[in-house]
Amino acid sequence: MYSFNELHEIIEKEIDGLEFSAPPEGLFEPMKYILGIGGKRLRPILVLLGANLYKDDLSKVCLPAIGIEIFHNFTLLHDDVMDNAPIRRKKKTVHEKWNSNVAILSGDAMSIKAYQYIGSCEDKYLRDVLTVFNQTALEVCEGQQFDMEFEDRNDVEIEEYLNMIRLKTAVLLGGSLKMGAIMGDASSKDAELLYHFGVNLGMAFQLQDDLLDVFGDEAVFGKKIGGDILSNKKTFLLINALETASGDVEKELKFWITTKSFNPEEKIKAVGTIYEQLNVREYSQNKIENYFALCLEYLDKVDVDAEKKKELYSLVKGLVDRSV
Amino acid sequence: MYSFNELHEIIEKEIDGLEFSAPPEGLFEPMKYILGIGGKRLRPILVLLGANLYKDDLSKVCLPAIGIEIFHNFTLLHDDVMDNAPIRRKKKTVHEKWNSNVAILSGDAMSIKAYQYIGSCEDKYLRDVLTVFNQTALEVCEGQQFDMEFEDRNDVEIEEYLNMIRLKTAVLLGGSLKMGAIMGDASSKDAELLYHFGVNLGMAFQLQDDLLDVFGDEAVFGKKIGGDILSNKKTFLLINALETASGDVEKELKFWITTKSFNPEEKIKAVGTIYEQLNVREYSQNKIENYFALCLEYLDKVDVDAEKKKELYSLVKGLVDRSV
């Protein structure tokens, strides 16, 4: 059995070795660039972990796993164009380094490359792997569409938000594990349990990201605190706060999300304090714990020795312990 | 055996019946829109014709054929964003009717839908169909990349241009026939012959389009004449003219492609006359005839009764007769 870190190394090595050498270079350079600027490689590692629960030889699972990472990076590339984001992982985004057309077209080519790699699984798994992947990939687009639509809406409800992050983020974690399980010859019951494990892990992870963006330790979290507050992003925290606030607190919150001129530090502090006052921080922490608990319940039921599951348990533990 | 027109009706009916009903509507409305504004449906018909050479029952080939049409329309949708084109088939383009983000994201979702439909072929063909499709789809992106790069270059050579249109246009016609042939249980030799038939047909078709854009009959051609001349598009005609012109003719041609202020009618007429003087029109006609001839050579070799091939022969004849 491989450790998480060993799998991470395998993935990095595969990505380093990727050859997209055919002309036109303008199409393939951006692919190499975005795949080369890092990232946690969580999704391809989940594919390998899913398979590794059931088989030791992962040699035929590696390229499909890389396909999932290519797909994920394709979505980031196009999301960055749509969000007009200048920076990704501390580097210029593709449309900033080149231009929007390059970003659109090399993204399109990446999505096809993703299918090539995912489709390089063994014949006996091809139908099932593709079915899971197609469904998941479409849901990721649906999530991004909801996310964009929410920007122009002031009546987004909690359930809608949770559905959006499920689609945009969580299903790809679940789908990665499930595809790995399929390529490991897992029972369909186990594959389904692992899917739900991954989806709930993704939900916890995304809600935790929202929380860390407000209350995290900048040095540990790795990015600037308060970005969501400054942009009035409709996170789990803000939607909840808007639903529960009344009286002066409601007035103050609405002041901060409508005023155009403000001191950034002051706004971050004020809105953070409101989240505490309204117990939105605590509510969010509870919700995250619930998702982690659910995710462990699913993992417990997976029908393999506990020893085999230890990397997945410690992955969960590591995430629970992210400093909040 | 089905006639071309019968197959066209089958495809239109399938497209009318497509249900992309899941929320978010903002993702699926643009798909319905672009698929609904017409087009020749040539590619899905070629899939069906390819299969129909070998089998009568096309019921399991229809959805994969629709997948090819979805893919083709996805490329048009993204190409229109990249070219900033306001009109497609006399209707507003998707990014004009909605916006660029909608066009990018619904295009992405269309490419996944395309894979879903293409992947709905029978299991025994899945690997081979996907291999052809992945390769072809990637080449279409490569062609679009070359096309965009050529806009900023003044030294594009004929062979580069021919390679670009092969990738951007011709391979998808060849690939459509080949995928159809695979789903009809054709021999791999026949599938290959049909691929080359389609590629050469596509080359002839595209070069003819370039020619009709200058010398065509507006009423028959269906779009305004001279658009390529006005935008200095590096077509087969212009590249050839630039390569062969010398002396006063070269001066005149360079005047027309550099001057910013001109009477459109006058420019179209003048450049058209230069093409005639340089025998570029005639050279282009010969080239087109060569591609048609090649394409018929491949079709002759396909190992099925001539009677079965008659729809493909008359498709070629119909294209040869497009008025030039």
Summarize the SSE layout with pairings.
Two copies of one chain form a homodimer.
Chain A: H1 4-16, H2 25-36, H3 42-52, H4 62-83, E1 87-88, E2 91-92, H5 94-97, H6 100-118, H7 123-151, H8 158-183, H9 188-215, H10 218-221, H11 227-230, H12 236-244, H13 247-258, H14 264-277, H15 280-301, H16 310-320
Antiparallel strand pairs in A: 1-2
Helix pairs in contact in A: 1-3, 1-4, 2-6, 3-4, 3-8, 4-6, 7-8, 8-9, 9-15, 15-16
Description:
- Chains A, B: Its cofactor is Mg(2+).
- Chains A, B: Pfam families: polyprenyl_synt.
- Chains A, B: It comes from Labilibaculum euxinus.
- Chains A, B: This is Polyprenyl synthetase family protein.
- Chains A, B: GO terms for molecular function: metal ion binding; prenyltransferase activity.
- 2 copies of one chain form a homodimer.
- Chain A is an all-alpha fold and 324 residues long.
- Helix content of chain A is 74%, strand content 1%.
- Chain A has helices spanning 4-16, 25-36, 42-52, 62-83, 94-97, 100-118, 123-151, 158-183, 188-215, 218-221, 227-230, 236-244, 247-258, 264-277, 280-301, 310-320, and strands spanning 87-88, 91-92.
- In chain A, helix 3 (42-52) runs antiparallel to helix 4 and helix 7 runs antiparallel to helix 8.
- Chain A is globular, with a radius of gyration of 20 Å.
- Chain A binds chain B through residues 22-24, 26-27, 75, 78, 81-82, 101, 104-105, 107-109, 111-113, 115-116, 119, 123, 126-127, 130-131, 134, 137-138, 141-142, 144-146, 148-149, and chain B through 22-24, 26-27, 75, 78, 81-82, 101, 104-105, 107-109, 111-113, 115-116, 119, 123, 126-127, 130-131, 134, 137-138, 141-142, 144-146, 148-149.
